[in-house]
Write a structure and sequence with these properties.
Radius of gyration: 22 Å
Structural class: alpha+beta
CATH architecture of the largest domain: Sandwich
Number of strands: 10
Bound molecules: dinuclear copper ion
Length: 164
């Protein structure tokens, strides 16, 4: 069978694309891959988070004062609440101090977004998402789960109270 040179070129291009796509899938998570998740807080066992046996601040989540100017907030997300954060247990932090949120999940992937701020991260079981911020003004901010996490996802939220 005769194959035209023009056709050979296109066959070669198609082959290169296929190899390229496979390489992207196989190696996309390393090297030049894009890291979508802020996992600067490291990894953690979601099982241990669930049973409260991580040996970290997640076992008794809440606000921990490090110094007058730095507070760490441990938050556990689970279907369908943040603790602290949801219901009658808002996250209460002072204004004009560095606040580091460490958030992890006890079950599935959730989101952690504080309204009117740029604090916004995915919360993936097995990983600790870490974001720091400083609130200039006192007030109450909304807390929203922005990743679909199950039937009651739309009810998953809470509040952050910034006090003087
Ligand atoms: Cu948690 Cu949506």
């Amino acid at each position: 069978m005769q194959v035209h040179n023009f056709e050979k070129v296109w066959l070669g291009v198609a082959l290169l694309l296929i190899v390229g796509f496979i390489a992207t899938i196989a190696y996309g998570s390393v090297g030049a891959g894009i890291s979508m998740v802020d996992d600067s807080g490291g990894t953690i066992s979601a099982q241990a988070v669930q049973s409260g046996e991580t040996g970290t601040g997640f076992d008794d989540p809440g606000v921990v004062k490090q110094s007058d100017d730095h507070y760490v907030v441990y938050v556990v997300a689970r279907q369908f609440q943040f603790s602290p954060g949801s219901g009658d247990n808002p996250i209460r932090v002072p204004a004009d101090a560095r606040i580091t949120f460490k958030v992890t999940s006890a079950d599935v992937t959730h989101g952690f977004s504080i309204t009117e701020t740029n604090i916004n991260t995915m919360v993936i079981p097995g990983q600790v998402a870490e974001v720091s911020a400083r609130f200039d003004e006192t007030g109450t901010y909304g807390l929203v789960c922005h990743e679909y996490c199950g039937a009651a996802h739309h009810t998953m939220g809470g509040s952050v109270e910034v006090v003087a």
